[in-house]
Amino acid sequence: MSAPAAMPAAPNLAGDGRTDLVGYDLAALTALFVELGEPAFRARQLYRWIYNRGATDFAAMSDLAKPLRDLLAARFRVGRPGATSVLESFDGTTKWLLRLTDGNEVECVHIPETDRGALCVSSQVGCTLSCKFCHTGTQRLVRNLTAAEILGQVMLARDRFGEWPSPVEGRRITNIVMMGMGEPLYNWDNIAAALRLAMDGEGIAISRRRITLSTAGVAPMIRRCGEELGVNLAISLHAVTDELRDVLVPLNRKYPIAELLAACRGYPGLRNARRITFEYVMLKGVNDSADEARELVRLIAGIPAKVNLIPFNPWPGAPYERSDDDTIERFAEIVRRAGYPSPVRTPRGEDIMAACGQLKSASEKMRRGATAAPPA
Ligand code: SF4
Question: What is the SS3 assignment for 14-48?
């Protein structure tokens, strides 16, 4: 059988040789059904079973004829990444360590708030970008995740919270943040495919206004992200001079601050109601002075923005310390007075190493030892 016309860029093969249908959009399922000699409208029924009702067993798809269900079950599956561990923090944060079909592992984190919750999703196994303050950056890049593996994180979390069929009210997963392991804009095709499926109102139905893609600053991809996905954009800025950002976020050597901010200024749909979030990790004595706060405000002048200040979350062997509370508050006050919201992020899930910048798969930790040193 030849491949369907609009199948995912990298279909996920299960260990048993069946193809995982997670990641297939409606066009791909329709093409598949045409090949199977089935009416095209059945593809929509299957689509809704997969993405609206969260079914993983073809036998449960009661409006499909039994012979078709049997045929699908023999050749396909509707999978989820396997969870090797699920850790819950005292603050309600949940972290999944997921084992992929090839044995690689990634992490995914749910951060609950009173009336909503964000799922922090990974885009790659490891990361090439080696941001100096980030634990994930000490793990070498193994590979990009497929669309199925990206979307599978959302679907697995929904399984756990019983959010099928896609509820309209009272969801525990209201937001998706592409801020887990990896640089999403270096895995564009799969991220775009997964997020389009996540946004589709007939399926998982999480609005683009509730999805944020965070990048370390892949400037040439920023416009495309806005035009094709229209999601919220977050930039891991972390420094106000190229000299320091070259060290903290080495990607800056390729796309320096001026080029990055020019790309931000051109982000489609930017307005006060739709601001860019600049993430700024607070590192004691490194990037947290009042002068740096003033320079930050000068740099982002004219960009509808908010500045998230992230007290550094330490990890074993980390080369930095968290800024003092007073220093963070002084920095925030300067930014706020310039007219930018500047919330200080409360660290979440620290006890299970699920906070920002702490993600790193347990298998990698075991290989390197729990007190692994950061990269030189
Ligand atoms: S902060 Fe993001 S881009 Fe930088 S090393 Fe960590 S995972 Fe990679």
Answer: CCCCCEECCCCCHHHHHHHHHHCCCCCHHHHHHHH
The pLDDT > 90 percentage for the chain reads: 71
Answer yes or no: are the C-beta atoms of 276 and 299 closer than 8 Å.
no
- Decide whether any atom of ligand 1 lies within 6 Å of the 236 Cβ: yes
Going from the Cα of 135 to the center of ligand 1, the distance in angstroms, rounded, reads 8
Is the pLDDT at 12 greater than 80? The verdict is: no
Residues paired with residue 305 on neighbouring β-strands, in sequence order = 276
Helix (H, G, I), strand (E, B) or coil at 182: coil
Q: How far is the CA of 213 from the centre of ligand 1 (A)?
A: 13
Q: Please tell me the distance between residue 288's alpha carbon and the centre of ligand 1 in angstroms.
A: 20
Q: What is the pTM of this model?
A: 0.89
Ligand 1 atom at minimum distance from 182 CA: 7
Q: How many helices (H) and strands (E) are present in the chain, helices listed first?
A: 11, 13
Tokens 């495309």 correspond to 224
- Mapped onto helix, strand or coil, the DSSP state of residue 13 is strand
Residue extents of the structural domains in the chain? 19-77, 82-368
| Mutation to probe ligand 1, out of 123, 183, 364 (largest number of atoms < 8 A from CB) | 183
361 pLDDT higher than 70? no
DSSP states along 86-123: EEE-TTS-EEEEEE-TTS-EEEEEEEE-SS-EEEE---
Enter the CATH code of domain 19-77: 1.10.150.530
| Fold annotation for 82-368 | TIM Barrel (3.20.20)
3-state SS, 314-325, equals CCCCCCCCECCH
pLDDT at 30: 96
Rounded Cα distance, 91 and 258, in Å: 39
**Cis amide linkage into residue 165, ω under 30° from 0:** yes
State residue 376's pLDDT score. Answer: 25
Query: Can you read off the two tokens belonging to residue 19?
Result: 């193809």
Q: Which residues are catalytic?
A: 107, 356
Q: How far apart are CA 281 and CA 247, in angstroms?
A: 14
Which stretches does DSSP call E strand in 230-299?
232-236, 276-282
The amino acid at residue 265 is R
